[in-house]
């Protein structure tokens, strides 16, 4: 519902609005250029789950602080360059070290094993790889993921999923920076 303002009030409101727009445009023109925000797709790759029953009402408090809101399910979005269907998840691993909360997910679609790095805090799949791992990763460190396919062991960067190294050996496990391998993991001879 709108109300007619007397002529002088209407002109004053228009002048105030024009002044506010001029100030906003002037402020934006003087702002330094910033990096563009990464685009997030509108459709989630993994939908938010819902409880099989209604949540219980919150009836009590702990301590003297303000009541904390209950966590709500949120979808996981596909990051830039991530394609493909959702996975049938086989294994999850947390990524150790400082920085945002991250999880390495391995699973299958069809008969292909795929691994993906999920930024838990932002709810975005940062990268997905279907080329290097035929089994779930054997080791996850703060900087890389180690996978084996029975003939070769491969190290992938946690930053972007790129191959860091590849050696002819089968890794059976690892912890920290120690790998347990069957076969030779010696460095290749130096070029002549």
Taking pLDDT < 50 over at least 5 consecutive residues as the criterion, the unreliable ranges are 1-10, 13-29
Q: What is the 3D shape? A: elongated
Report the total helices.
1
What is the β-strand count? 12
Q: What is the averaged pLDDT score?
A: 73
- Biggest sheet strand order reads 1-2-6-5-4-3
**What is the helix content?**
10-25%
Strand content: 25-35%
For the termini, the CA-CA separation is 85 Å
Structural class: mainly beta
Rg over C-alpha atoms, rounded to the nearest angstrom: 26 Å
What is the element string, with H for helices and E for strands? HEEEEEEEEEEEE
Main sheet makeup: 6 strands, mixed
Describe the structure.
The longest helix is centred in the N-terminal third of the chain and has 24 residues, at 7-30. This protein has one helix at 7-30, and strands at residues 44-46, 76-78, 88-94, 102-109, 112-119, 124-129, 139-140, 144-148, 153-157, 163-167, 170-175, 178-182. The termini are far apart. The protein is built from 1 helix and 12 strands; from the N terminus they run H-E-E-E-E-E-E-E-E-E-E-E-E. It is mainly β.
Report a brief summary of the structure.
This protein has 192 residues and is mainly beta. It has one helix at residues 7-30, and strands at residues 44-46, 76-78, 88-94, 102-109, 112-119, 124-129, 139-140, 144-148, 153-157, 163-167, 170-175, 178-182. The strands form three sheets. Strands 1-2-6-5-4-3 form a six-stranded mixed β-sheet, with no helix packed on it.
